Automatic annotation (TrEMBL):
GO terms for molecular function: serine-type carboxypeptidase activity. It is found in: Secreted. InterPro entries: AB_hydrolase_fold, Peptidase_S10, Ser_caboxypep_his_AS. Gene3D superfamilies: 3.40.50.11320, 6.10.250.940. It comes from Microthlaspi erraticum. Pfam families: Peptidase_S10. Belongs to the peptidase S10 family. This is Carboxypeptidase.
Amino acid sequence: MISDTSYNLILKNCNFTAERFSEGCESAIYNAAADFGDIDQYSIYTPKCVRTKEMHKTVISRQVLAEYDPCTESYAEIYYNRPEVQRAMHANRTAIPYKWTACSDYVFNNWNWRVSDNSMLPLYKELMEAGLRIWVFSGDTDSIIPVTATRFSLSKLNLPVKTRWYPWYSGNQVGGRTEVYEGLTFVTVRGAGHEVPLFRPQSALIILRSFLAGKELPRSY
């Protein structure tokens, strides 16, 4: 979604291990972001939600849809910020001074990054050494945590491959691809964005059932 020029400028100007980005890096990232256009970066091939004044009325009578609704998150934010809903859920008992959101800018902006791990990989190693099974799944239309970046990160673990890359099935269609390593299984979900169960509920259920049963994903339908 970004041009070769933008990509090469990021490689030239950015050091992602530095505590702060340089001015050149900030500029390169800004220009690359502009290449995306006004899309939903959590699901790059679905329409973007267009907020309207009618949403507050719609959320009252809205029924469960068979297909993905790009405004699902907006409906949820309206619903969960209603005082009567929060009372029924025993939520916001401390009367926080900001609205509930699916992703909180308040939490993000006030997070203490200095005491946080820069990577999940050491934690993965610790959990695998303790004998826990780990499945990492990723929707292949998500640009926020894309499949390519996840594969790049997992490759740094240098895990032996138990079962090589193969397509797995959801119903009579390819549900995605998977590769099984010693201690970790990686799964892609075809056509899913950031929140896999929201976009591909049947595929998400197959992944969950396979994980709980300790079985590899189905190779056929």
